[in-house]
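Aim 2, interim progress. The first record below pairs a target sequence with its structure tokens.
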Amino acid sequence: MKLSGKKALITGGNSGIGLATAKLFVEQGAQVAITGRDQKTLDEAAALLGPGARAYRADVTNREERKQLFEALAKDFGKLDIVFANAGISGSTPTGSTDEAVFENIININLNGVFFTINAAAPLLNDGGSIIINGSVHNYLGAPGYAAYAATKGGVVSMARAIAGDLAPRNIRVNVVAPGATKTPIWTRGASSSAPDEARQKRVAAIAAGIPLGRWGEPEELAKAALFLASDDSSYVNAVELMVDGGATGAPFGAPMFRQ
């Protein structure tokens, strides 16, 4: 097993990529702490993960809740070896009609929340540990209506490089795993969730047609990439952005929509 004896924290570990990663980490021998804001999904995730994991209800953007979380982690886990700063949200912020509060909330969760999670975790991290940040293809796509989300995902890449420099004397590696379209609950929230099934299916198919591999990713595939970055398999990989997007950013003209 690749993570025997390791202790990991995964924020937003109660669903989607975070939950799939927590499951894989437990299977690979790690003790895992997951966080989330919804107690119901946290309880369900904890039941699924079994005794190898502990769940903590916490909003990583809330200073007091974050403080309580890391006090609990210090008591329950002692030290950490891996931090996966995965918690984040999407949201539409079209230029010219976006409410400031909506924009600022996305920035607060996806950028500020990531930094202050890592900032609080750093004293608990063992030297030689691994930090992973969840990025996105939206760092590159220029998708209309996603200015705030794209800004946060570009921001975490630059931030990861700076943090890698900060923590280099401790041999702590800092990397970004950047998903493309992935089958997670984030795609069933908001306006798209209320759209008719036929409309949503057309959107799913249209996105798949723009991916060279011709399909959406599975959460388990992102979990495997996170495992690589968390384990000694990537012992000389540092300050990189690992794209896990079916080729959407690297070879976009290989997508089915351009091969027809």
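The second target in this work package is listed in the same format:
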Amino acid sequence: MRLILTILAAALLIVAWIFLVPQPKKTTPITLRFHAKMGEDPLIHDQFVYDNPGGEGQFRVRDFRFYLSNLSFEHQGETYAEPDSYHLIRFDNPEKTHSITLPEVPMPSVESIRFLIGVDPAANSSIEARGDLDPNSQMAWNWEVGYKFVVFEGALRVGDEVSPLVYHVGFDENAQEIAFSLAPEVLEDGAGEVHLNVDLAKLFDSSARIDMQSLPSVKFNRPDAEMLARNYATMITLGF
């Protein structure tokens, strides 16, 4: 009888420990891998191989980068927001990819991902360096505090004439929220890797089709910046 009582007491202590002592929260490692594309194909830099979507000529890409911010993950109604979540996405590497890795998202799994293309107004009006934000970087305007959300630079060739292309977009209202739902198999077996395609063609041919010859530059014009922002809101899709 004493042995039985001892066993019961031990079992009660174990049950009490399970329910009363906080247990470590399961975490999920996640890597977001962005692939630069032009349509279905990998992006090619510094070659006149792409047709002007809205007019004559071919263009080349010299530089393409953008800010991604406010990255968050959801699971069964709970949300985890990455602290200081400001990432400069760039593709000036042989693989034309860019990765963001979070080794321990405090969730047992992830059902959806949400982020901004651009920078939220509070950070956009601050001189504090956070994440990849740096007011002294080439991604900051030199005429006031604030950041260029999306930068494209290149050139257009029409016949024998070559002219520069410069598109810098970065007013507060140009930030675009993007959200994806993940199928369960995306993160199965602990792989934790989500592939995202970034189709640069959508910057110039989505809700609006841009003639680069008639609009070779966008910097401070709000209607033109808004037009490009509506376009780049569609440029990121889930890959496989």
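The chain has a mean pLDDT of 89. This observation will shape the mutagenesis plan for the next reporting period.
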